[in-house]
Amino acid sequence: MKIKRSLSILLVVMMLITVVAGCSKNDAGNSTDGKVTLTFGLWDKYQEPIMRELADMYEAKNENIKIDIQLTPYGQYWTKLETAATGEVLPDIFWINGPNIVKYAANDMLVPLDELVESNNIDLSVYPEGLIDLYTVEGKLYGIPKDWDLTALWYNKKLFDEKGVEYPNENWTWDDMVEAARKLTDKEKGIYGIASRPDTQEGIYDTIPQAGGYIISEDRKTSGYDTKEALEGTKIWIDLLEEGLSPTLEEQADTNAIELFKGEKVAMVYAASWNVPVFMENEIIKDHIDLTVMPLIKERAATIHGLSNAIAANSKHKDEAWDFVKFLGSKEANEVWAKSGAVIPAHKEVLDIWESSYPDINLKAFVDELDYAVMYPVSMNTSKWNDVETEYIKQMWNRGITVEEGLKKIAELMNEALTKEQ
Amino acid sequence: MKANTDIKNNQNNKALKASGKRKLNDLFWGYLLILPTVLGLAVFYIAAFFQNLYYSFTNLGAFGKYKWVGMENYINVFSDPKVPQALINTVKFTVISVPISIIISLFIATLLNSKIKGLSLYRTLYFLPAVTMPAAIAMMWKWLYNGQYGLLNQLLAKVGIEGQAWIADPKFAMGALIVVGIWSSLGMKIIYFLAGLQGIPKAYYEAATIDGAGPIRQFFSITLPSLTPTIFFVMITSLIGALQMFDLIFLMISKTSLAVDSTMSIVYLFYKYAFEFQEKGYASAISIVLFMIILVITAIQLKLQKKWVNY
Amino acid sequence: MKEISSNKKRMQINKIIIHLLLILGAIITIIPFVWMILTSFKTLGESTIIPPTIFPKQMQWENYKEAMRTLPYGKFYFNTIVYTMLTTIGQIVFCSMAGYAFARIDFKGKNFIFVLILSVLMVPGQIFLIPQFMIMKKLGLLNSITALVLPGLFSAYGTFLMRQFYMGIPKELEEAARLDGCNHFTIFWKIMTPLVKPGIAALAITACLYCWNSLMWPLIVNTSIDKMTLSAGLSTLSGQHGTNFPVAMAGTVLAVWPMIVLFAIFQKHFVEGMASTGSKS
């Protein structure tokens, strides 16, 4: 008994020692065989295989480079990145998005790319202008665009046919859409014409600029929510709710507009381009849906967002990292993205390949919207006022407060947050 | 070996000297046995705790940069309207879920401690929620609660009750979360109680049976008093756990839901400020306020335990 | 004779009542599990139709293949087992030592240290993330199993739990041992610890669950997916714009079953010898 016990203790101690000794040497970074390992941080499980493919392509051409892809789910990505940044061990290259770019760039966490772009003769005009603007902070560029997304008007042809309504087209105005929604709404069947979404990028971020307004001023110092245009761009959504053409906020609470569209409970929906695979892999709707550009309000506009590849300021291999980022921005690499159909590649010259990834639907609508795309609104501490937006959008959509009150409140609190940033 | 002879000597020596030596001996063994834990906790937790206390007086933002701001954060905590709201929600959750879950799990544990067939199957079934990841629990319950598709509303419809959007409606959301909170914590509590029940000497029951005490009297006169150290542990830890509830809201209530305000807990608020808004200094102050509240409650419990816990 | 038979009858009725109560409770407990398993066999479309189908129209084993294909479950299991074993053993050893000292030895500063340890439980766990990460970085341990395991070896919760169990042991035992000339270590190791075996079992389960459920720490100290634990790896299934529920549920089922099997085996072991304590009536 005693021997058995001592043995088991010994075993435990040995195991602990082995693990402590054995695993601590696993430090990634410079390998012994002269290869440089570049770490690459991203968050999307479904894009990871494509990223791996690109990394393999690059590794084949550059034998001294090894690319180590680090996947962290979106829910934990920013916390992890921030922890890594505090410890100065950010991945050499990583995905960054609009809401976080200013924070990382202004805190000197990223390598400015302008000089590198210039000395390498990179043509930035192949990328959407709105994206280059988005990733330019205080006059310096901090990321090479990887992909972009825009919102379009999606519709269910079956529901249109049932009511004998003509399909939406690129010349539609907002009023045309409302008119169609009236005909499509069928209370008895529980079907609504359109979903009025309490959303930003798939909602007011588009309609406010379309009404001639803006969300944040160009110097990122003042809110645009207290303008007449913002009121118009928001009110039109609330009108849809008031007329009963859209599911109420409560009805969208458990099952959001995207789910309702997939379940054929709404005939039209404003949905961003990341929904393309979501919709097209849904057996119920994939054969009878299509899309077109968002209807005209006063002017054409669409808020563009996209991801960039950024290089960490703490990287020990900045030159190698830049070379890989350059490769990822090339037409060749963008072609791989285009063929995958997973996202809309940033490089303009490969868009036709992407358009044909689902030949049955009018993906060209997204490309058409590029012509009038406007920058996604961000600032230093974007999430602070994003929270304000969410809070009051919810209340306006629930019609607990009027649109006027809601927007005034957003503008007030957003301006307060923006002043604090200075 | 040395300690052994020490004790032997003690018995022969004068009482005073003996007690002095014993004290020294106790001191030595006490510190030796707690050394690894204290050292480990000090390095990985207690140091961070004091660092957090320090940060609560700074404007710590993203990436570890900060300036000293004195009491400003604390003044803000007490003027922030979100704090009392979150406090009320947290207290509501705690006050309802803790007693109910303790009573239910104690009851089930007692049943599971009886001599019937199929015990191992029952125990495994009741253990199931404990092994499920919070994310999976949230996913399942979101399904069940779903206003349109949910099984709960389906069942209610069968008996003619109109369903609700349980976790989307501010009126019901907290109740719905409490149910999940109780449900998911039962498994572990039952295990603690089962473990505690085994420490009760059989002789107590044998004696009671001879005295003619029935099962219910035995429960109140033997089981319950003997189980008080375990009940005390479960009570303190579940109070602390409930006052720190976070996972459930984070996973079950979507940010665009109307029910956010009526379910927002203190730790959720802390999380939002620390990791979303990059106001870590302020978040630290919130966490210190919460710490004070829990400390006071625990201190009261520790004092009161002498009245009812039998060691 | 008659009295005995009526007594037996009463016991029989008692047993039936106990069974009924337990079955009712068990049903309520397992409904979400059953739902999870059923959903894991549905197509994405079927999982969202109104009204929901209870049984899948066709068993979609595809979901399991998909979940297996997208994630390296084998590695996840391995990492989780190593992580869990080391943590559990560490906690059992350290927590019972400290728990014994806090419960049964009188020494100066004990109460203060104990409250200090408890205070670790009273702040949100998230505050420890960044400081712990910085320590690991300074030690050069990032991206290692050591870093994953180290902070979890010490547990304030476990120390408290073990203290309570050591507290519950009658004083007479200790006094008798002291008179026999045992030192603290012998009392602790030979006399007391065998008596708190149920407590140790409960601690072991708690430690296992802690490892099983921890998400943020594995994701933060590890950078490669090959070093992820189960729940951390599983979390990568949820995307930025919505989650494929049936596949995620399939992934969850795959992740949870070993734990359930383990418990089913061990629960017998850890409740052995107690079966009759409660109802010797």
Descriptive report:
The complex is a heterotrimer of chains A (422), B (311) and C (281). Chain A has 19 helices and 15 strands. Chain A is of the alpha/beta class and 422 residues long. Chain A folds into 2 domains: 36-148 and 305-355, D-Maltodextrin-Binding Protein, domain 2 (3-Layer(aba) Sandwich); 151-304 and 381-421, 3-Layer(aba) Sandwich (D-Maltodextrin-Binding Protein, domain 2), CATH 3.40.190. In chain A, strands 2-1-3-13-6 form a 5-stranded mixed β-sheet. A 4-stranded mixed β-sheet of chain A has the order 9-10-8-11. In chain A, helix 9 packs across helix 10. Chain B has 2 domains: 1-55, no CATH class; 79-308, MetI-like (MetI-like fold, Orthogonal Bundle). In chain B, 48% of the residues are buried. Chain B is built from 15 helices and no strands. Helices cover 77% and strands 0% of the residues of chain B. In chain B, helix 3 (72-79) packs across helix 15 (280-308) and helix 11 (228-243) packs antiparallel against helix 15. With 311 residues, chain B is mainly alpha-helical. Chain C folds into 2 domains: 2-62; 72-236, MetI-like (MetI-like fold). Chain C is built from 14 helices and no strands. In chain C, helix 9 (171-179) packs antiparallel against helix 10. At the B-C interface, helix 1, helix 2, helix 4, helix 5 and helix 6 of B face helix 1, helix 4, helix 5, helix 6 and helix 8 of C.
Q: Topology of this structure?
A:
The complex is a heterotrimer of chains A (422), B (311) and C (281).
Chain A: H1 2-23, E1 36-42, H2 48-61, E2 65-71, H3 74-86, E3 93-96, H4 98-106, H5 114-119, H6 129-134, E4 136-137, E5 140-141, E6 144-145, E7 147-148, E8 151-156, H7 157-163, H8 174-184, E9 192-194, H9 200-210, H10 228-242, H11 249-254, H12 257-262, E10 266-272, H13 275-280, E11 289-292, E12 302-304, E13 308-311, H14 318-328, H15 331-340, E14 344-345, H16 351-355, H17 364-369, E15 373-375, H18 382-397, H19 403-421
Parallel strand pairs in A: 1-2, 1-3, 9-10, 12-15
Antiparallel strand pairs in A: 3-13, 4-5, 6-13, 7-14, 8-10, 8-11
Helix pairs in contact in A: 9-10, 18-19
Chain B: H1 2-12, H2 15-55, H3 72-79, H4 82-112, H5 119-131, H6 134-145, H7 151-158, H8 170-198, H9 202-210, H10 215-226, H11 228-243, H12 247-252, H13 260-263, H14 266-276, H15 280-308
Helix pairs in contact in B: 1-2, 3-15, 4-8, 4-11, 5-8, 8-11, 11-15, 14-15
Chain C: H1 2-39, H2 44-47, H3 61-70, H4 73-104, H5 110-119, H6 129-138, H7 145-149, H8 156-167, H9 171-179, H10 184-195, H11 197-213, H12 216-221, H13 230-235, H14 245-270
Helix pairs in contact in C: 3-14, 4-8, 4-11, 8-11, 9-10
Keywords (chain B): Cell membrane, Membrane, Transmembrane, Transmembrane helix, Transport
Organism (chain B): Tissierella pigra
Transmembrane segments (chain B): 27-50, 93-112, 124-144, 172-195, 219-242, 248-270, 282-302
